[in-house]
């Protein structure tokens, strides 16, 4: 038999109130940490007012998910703990459930979609949980987890759509108001909406004037369409590197809370998240996963849209090192700091050296060079050189291209196409 996912009576109004969130804060005291709030001078200069970073990437297990997972498991009955728990997650919820299960003394089985980040899988196993891969998307893993619960009697621990989970995530909102009492806007990375709903409920209960904004990846944004339709509507497909917020269907409870308490839900592109992640690494010295950079991406993309002081939640820092390298490169390309060029040069001794000297004189850093001698587009006395360059930004890239053309070089293709 399966246990119902919402097995406690709902508070008045059918959602989580300030009292439930304050009780959750007491429950997680000593388990989850009160994460730092760091002022970001560089981002403040971009936005034109104070910007603060709520560093949930420094939370235990590397994301905010430990809060809600522990509240949920700590409130299980002894009989429920004896049956064990099951969850579906791309990684962060998995680690939160695994840690909480270890702390309360119950077994945990976690279903992950194929392709879940390896560090998240290993960390989940490291906390003692069993990991099973199933399906391509989180929703596929959720189906498998529910089937497992029905077969074994394990208690299903939903990643976001449960009042205990929402209350636990809402403790982030209480900390934000304690740490930045004059906050005017709060931006929250959003997948299924557990964190956004919890933060909005907490913040609006104390400060109704604060603007609360959810930020979704454009390629996995279920909330805008759902809010427009007035009910949760599933996406037919998703494509984003931000696995932490790749959720194709809002929950019933989270949708209602977001609809009633969140001012706006916006989307950010992969390029915007890449630029934000790169800026956080370079300027804030913060390692975050792509989902964790979403709120900063929204601020950078539309700096005049949010009143200050603004708080951007860095929701998680569990990123595969290989993906981190790719995203940093992508961010540099999106910022114009990688440049891909194809240049025709005379096929004579010293021809390549002369080209490289011009690039060096303009401050470009050559990362890769490939010759092509046979092409219908080339004259007999020409060779095409494909170059991957590192530049200081879009203006520098434009100046470099202009210099090459002024020196008589024929730059082929789209010279401003990003490099690697």
UniProtKB/TrEMBL annotation:
The EC number of this protein is 4.3.1.19
InterPro entries found in the cross-reference section: ACT_ThrD-II-like, Ser/Thr_Dehydratase, Ser/Thr_deHydtase_PyrdxlP-BS, Thr_deHydtase_catblc, TrpB-like_PALP, TrpB-like_PALP_sf
> Which cofactors does this gene product need?
pyridoxal 5'-phosphate
Question: Which Gene3D superfamilies would you find in this protein's record?
Answer: 3.40.50.1100
Give every Tryptophan synthase beta chain-like PALP domain span.
33-316
The pathway this protein participates in, as annotated, is:
Amino-acid degradation; L-threonine degradation via propanoate pathway; propanoate from L-threonine: step 1/4
Per the record, the domain of life is Bacteria
Which keywords accompany this UniProt record? Allosteric enzyme, Lyase, Pyridoxal phosphate
Stated family: Belongs to the serine/threonine dehydratase family.
- Provide the assembly information: In the native structure, TdcB is in a dimeric form, whereas in the TdcB-AMP complex, it exists in a tetrameric form (dimer of dimers).
PANTHER family assigned to the protein according to its UniProt record, in alphabetical order: L-THREONINE DEHYDRATASE CATABOLIC TDCB, THREONINE DEHYDRATASE, MITOCHONDRIAL-RELATED
Name of the protein in question: L-threonine dehydratase catabolic TdcB
For this protein's source organism, the top of the classification is:
Bacteria, Bacillati, Actinomycetota, Actinomycetes, Propionibacteriales
| Gene that this polypeptide is encoded by | ilvA
């Amino acid at each position: 038999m399966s246990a119902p996912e919402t097995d406690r009576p709902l508070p008045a109004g059918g959602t989580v109130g300030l009292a439930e969130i304050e009780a959750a804060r007491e429950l997680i005291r000593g388990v989850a940490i009160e994460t730092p709030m760091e002022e970001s001078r560089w981002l403040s200069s971009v936005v034109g007012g104070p910007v603060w970073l709520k560093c949930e990437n420094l939370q235990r297990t590397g994301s905010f998910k430990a809060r809600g997972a522990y509240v949920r498991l700590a409130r299980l009955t002894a009989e429920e703990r004896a049956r064990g728990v099951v969850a579906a997650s791309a990684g962060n919820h998995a680690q939160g459930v695994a840690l909480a299960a270890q702390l309360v003394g119950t077994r945990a089985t976690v279903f992950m979609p194929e392709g879940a980040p390896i560090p998240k899988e290993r960390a989940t196993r490291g906390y003692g949980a069993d990991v099973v891969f199933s399906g391509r998307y989180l929703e596929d893993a959720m189906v498998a987890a529910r089937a497992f619960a029905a077969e074994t009697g394990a208690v299903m621990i939903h990643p976001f759509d449960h009042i205990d989970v929402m209350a636990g995530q809402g403790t982030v909102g209480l900390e934000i108001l304690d740490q930045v009492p004059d906050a005017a806007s709060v931006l929250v990375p959003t997948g299924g909406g557990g964190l956004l709903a919890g933060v909005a409920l907490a913040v609006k209960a104390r400060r109704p004037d604060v603007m609360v904004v959810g930020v979704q990846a454009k390629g996995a944004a279920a909330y805008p369409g759902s809010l427009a339709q007035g009910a949760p509507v599933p996406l037919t497909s998703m494509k984003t590197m931000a696995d932490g917020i790749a959720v194709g269907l809002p929950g019933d409870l989270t949708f209602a809370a977001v609809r009633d308490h969140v001012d706006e839900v916006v989307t950010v592109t992969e390029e915007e998240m890449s630029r934000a992640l790169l800026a956080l690494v370079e300027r804030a010295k913060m390692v975050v996963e792509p989902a964790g950079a979403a709120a900063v991406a929204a601020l950078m993309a539309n700096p005049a849209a949010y009143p200050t002081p603004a708080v951007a939640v860095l929701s998680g820092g569990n990123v595969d090192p290989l993906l981190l390298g790719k995203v940093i490169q992508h961010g540099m390309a999106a910022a114009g700091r990688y440049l891909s060029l194809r240049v025709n040069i005379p096929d004579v001794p010293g021809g390549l050296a002369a080209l490289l000297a011009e690039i060096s004189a303009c401050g470009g850093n050559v990362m890769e060079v490939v010759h092509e001698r046979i092409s219908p587009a080339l004259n007999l006395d020409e060779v095409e050189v494909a170059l991957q360059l590192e530049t200081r930004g879009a203006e520098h890239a434009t100046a470099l291209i202009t210099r090459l053309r002024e020196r008589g070089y024929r730059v082929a293709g789209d010279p401003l196409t990003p490099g690697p």
